[in-house]
Amino acid sequence: MLDTIIYNIKKNPYRLFLAKFIIFLSIVFIIDFTIGSLLNYFYFKQKSGYEYRTTYSLEKTQADVLIFGSSRANHHYRPDIFEDRLNMTYYNVGRDGNFIFYHYAMLKGILERYAPKIIVLDLVKEEFRKNSNSYDRIATLLPYYDSHPEIRSIIELKSHYEKYKLFSKIYPFNSLILKISIANTDFNKKRSPDIKGYIPKTRTWDQPITYDTTDVRYELDNKKIEMYEDFIKDCNKAGIKLYVFVSPYFIKLNHTDYSIAIGGEIAKKYNIKFYDYSNDSLFTSNRSLFDDMVHLNHGGAKVFTDLVVDRILNGN
Amino acid sequence: MLFNSIEFVFFFILVTVAYFILPQRFRWFLLLAASCYFYMAFVPIYILILGFTIVIDYFAGILIENEQGNRRKLYLVMSLIANIGVLAVFKYYNFLNQNLTALLGSFSANNPIPFLKILLPIGLSFHTFQAMSYTIEVYRGNQKAERHFGIYSLYVMFYPQLVAGPIERPQNLLHQFREKFDFDYGRVVEGLKLILWGLFKKIVIADRLAIYVNAVFNNVDHHNGTTLILATFFFAFQIYCDFSGYSEIAIGAARVMGFNLMTNFNRPYFSRNISEFWKRWHISLSTWFKDYLYISLGGSKVSIPRWYFNLFFVFLVSGLWHGANWTFIIWGAINGFYLIFAIITQSLRSNFDKITGLSRLPKLNYAIQILLTFMLTSFAWIFFRANNLPDAVLIIKKIFTQRGPLFFEAPSMLIFPFLGILMLLVVEIKKEYYNHKFSLFNNDKWIVRHLSYAILVILILLMGVFDGGQFIYFQF
Asked: What CA dihedral angle connects A189, A194, A196 and A197, to 10 degrees?
């Protein structure tokens, strides 16, 4: 009986191809499932690094004050000042090289568990600029696709075929195998430590200030603007006090960045406090506060965080 | 539509299945429609440019065949002018104008000729050269003029090799569109294996290397010589894996349907001299230049100075073919210089081997020659990759004068690329020197074969760059 089936398959090239292709796919599926499951296990076992902080932000933090944003959020808001002066707990949800998609996904995930008292959203120049790189960056959220249905719609913005790619168990951990390995071994200890998500920068910038005179009306991404608006609406709905800040740059602008202007207008529409320090002379005149042109160092972060907390306390 | 996209997977499956379902007489139409769709997925309007050259060359072919004497030559020249004219307008006009502006500027004069605001049609140099090879071969009497307009259009537009080659010859490809290819298990599997290996080279190696190469070459000012050496070394492998990966996917996709496209790469980094390198690198272009330019100029059957000129000129044109930029022209010139220098110093080098005793150590000599050839080609790649001429000069200056710590943002930025290169070298060394020894991918046991290819898929999923960009050669 089996011999007859095999004979019939071998006789017909289409059947032979299909049979072998199915075997091949089965092998791929088994290896993919095994390695993918292992990666998944070790990914969520990490105790340091970006991925760990994203998991902690989404699944564990209960802090009263949360800071959202990119690397600038990571380095500009000091937890000690927030905690001492506001007498509240703090966590920094910011992540390097991410945009509003990431921030909103974090918010949605966190709101599934609890509503923090205060959120500070750090907006960057060109936040709403149309560029494919910001969609590629959504990859940081792929490991959470299965466990966080609330952020799936954001992950699916990455590409039309994202949900099909996610049939693979390895795909969400693409390019992460080294990081996961490091985070699960002793190399872990060599990583620069964070303080409740805040990462201090230690250098002092030694270059003269850059002048940016190019007032470019770049193409805007409506999806990003929409998501920023949703971020504000969700905070309002959850009764969270939201503050939007544009932290300092060591770049002298002779214009207001397009995205910052729009961010300000939308915040005003929803009665949200919006503070733009991108061109503040306190910072643009003092390069010792910076680590590089776009990041404050630990000392600069102290000066800026004090200003932020003043704003929160005074409400002006 | 990029070969390394999900869209292409669906497109390929759909077209291939339809190809085998349809009767032979309709297949050319399916392939032509699919090729149009494939091309229009980039910039739809540019199909009109392709249409223009196709119409010209189709009629030129018939007229050349029907006419005698000087009129044949006239039609050939007219067709070549039309093709080169399209290239000149879309690829070289602004470059020439830019140089004219600079030249007039040095005499404090203004250039009144306006610049064109146009994008370079994707793969223009490839399909133009393929179209030109048709009229030249008809003129030389090596190919009969194709009377079927659809099949001729398909010759120019066949989607696997439309935008980045291999640049086919009519004698190899045209007749295949009239042949009936049945579903052949062995051939289909062979094609799919090529596609998979091509994707591995592109997604796992080339795109991974590109992250480092782009970070360094786009910010030359900020990097030291040590980093620039590594970036140059990486670029040598990036461009090889990017382009040969594309060629393998193209050849594989055609192979699945039964078509045989010419080999485009033959492990070029195992070449022992520059002449051999050019016989192994972008073979379809090198042979194109040899067949239609070098031989037309007299090849090597001329006086020695003229021979050197012919060689140098061909490489100069080859450089210009790659791009309208002085960096490409200099890259071509360097390669031309290498070749002439190798010819001139042949006996000198042979004597050197004897004096130093290297000739008695053939394996060591072999390895040194490979390494030297690789270093020379890598040096030339600096001009190919640099964003502009001052950058290229700065890179070279820094390489020879500036040492410092190696740039990397995370260990993975170096570990993944080195792993990729190592895997490539293992496979290529095996193919080059131990082809009949143990093989994973062509093992007698089907389970070993299946497992090997499954692991390749897993490596793509684990280490591939899924948001990687276009193939480098698309811009040409």
From this structure: -120
